[in-house]
Request: fold
Amino acid sequence: MTHDSEATGSDPTPAPKTVGTPPKTIPPGLGLTRALPHPDDEAALDIADYLRSEQEGAADIHQGDATRQGLAALTLGAIGVVYGDIGTSPIYAFREAMRATGVAEPGPAEVLGILSLLIWSLILIVTVKYVFVLLRFDNRGEGGILALYTLARLAIGRRSLPLLALAIAGAALFAGDAAITPAISVLSAVEGMGLVLPSLESYVIPVTLAILVGLFAIQRSGTAKVALLFGPITAVWFLVLAGMGIWHMWETPWVISAFSPVWGIKFLLHHTEVAFIVLGAVFLAVTGGEALYADLGHFGRRPIKIAWFGLVLPSLVVNYLGQGALVLAHPGAAGDSFFAMAPSGFLPILVLLATMATVIASQAVISGAFSMARGAMQLGFLPRLRIRHTAEGQSGQIYLPAVNWLLLGGVLWLVLAFESSTALASAYGIAVTGTMVLTTVLGVVFLVRSGRLSLVAALALAAPIAVVEWVFLASNLTKIGDGGYVPVMAAMVVGLAMGCWWRGVQLVNARVHKLAVPMDTFVRAMAKSSAHVIPGTAFFLTGDPDVVPSALLHNLKHNRVLHEQTVFLTVETLRVPYATAEERASLDHLGGRFSRLTLRFGFMETPNVSRSMGHARQVGLKFDVMASTFFLGRRRAVATGRGFELLLDKIYVALTRFSADPTDFYHLPRDRVVELGERVAI
Reply:
């Protein structure tokens, strides 16, 4: 089986060791000189890890937790991780929708109308779109907008710039959502302190900031152990939601009539002046729904469905009905209907439990941001950033310092700038609705181009959901002036960075390819070369297997030697989440002492060349580890454009400074690396 791959290459990276122009011809009169000293790469693997990893062979292939854990454990885990975000929506969704009506003392028309809109939003957006439809669109078990993009890209069979733009926009919007979710979730829970003791109200912001700083600080040590508590705590949270809802429904049992969509339609027709604003608040109930699809690879389709229908959906619906019943009986409780549901003696416990639930919800979106960033890097949308694995044997447990601290900075700024969850609610929703709309578009493209449905059938299936999502998006766009500009600006900044990086990589690759020496020409020429041959194996990393790596040309020009075995090593990123053992490595003999080794990794994997050397041996490559050297080519881009293009070029050049050391990124043995560099004008 073969897969179309997105070549991100080993270049470009900043801080080249030497500067020069790759020679167009092979330097004559090559003689023996000593190799350049290797750089001191602090974070790269040492030779002991290299030797040990060779024995592991295919042990690094990803195996989902579904093959290791029972259905009950997976379902409990899905409750904690997948549904943590949507599970905290009852704290503020119904409250904000009631406030948006502008009615001082809401009656049945307002209460039942909003409840009907909430319930049917959960049914149409989450249940129908995500649970029944999108969970079927997995890319080798993985979900999320980038996985859906790769499916659509493979279905089309060629690169599509509009499709690429949709994927970048979706990933960028997710970045805005990832910053707002921790801020509004934790802030809304801590605000309950003011209900327990009004004197504590002045401590809401400091406590919120302390919790958020602590949450982001622990990311570096991993959350595998803490995550074991997520499922049980969140399950208790949902049971409490359901219990409080049932208790208040006894007071006003006819609130159950809100299941009729007629109430929602009548509300929209009779409250046209505020309908758009109310819909923007109603959408808060389904934020977090996209996590069902994004976390598909962690838990599997069946556990996610069981958790949704067995606990999450009933608990959410019953709690919203309970809040509505409370407001119908006591209209004055509409100002903070969620915390007003709890008896005074239970309120401190509810505030504590809500705070724990919101921290869990925040953790879920932070982990999602790490996974999204890694997927974007592997698809060539972001520069290589440093990735740390925080749990042995679990590839999904990763930590990206740059992403973590950037997110923390954005979250703290949001809390200090908006100061209340009500103010933040205005900024919340645009990023999520935008992502949902883009997901629907990509889903239709995949259905049609893969041949699963005709264009008419696909549009008929998607139309009802698309109409609802576009209405929600239009409603949320009315909040631009009240804070909605925040996620839009964040998405624009991230999208610009991703677009500039992708464009820059293409320009650099095109420029280098134009000046490169074809591989077949080089191999034939070297058959008659007088270059001095030294013992050992040289691995030259290259992003383009059809041309000679500039590092080899520089080595010939300056050191005038060839190794007795020269291997051109290409690391490919497949448009599938994880590579199988059969796909991991392939070896081609080019003639003479030259071979081409290709190592393949899925876009959700961190390329680990050292661990993959066992696969290289399995496909026939023979080499002595202690007599092997890895050569890296560093390319330093120089901006030479004009006007707007010059600005884009400068952004790309600036981004290259954030790129991780390739020795670290590809997990090369630290004391086996030689680096050579060049300048490339774009």
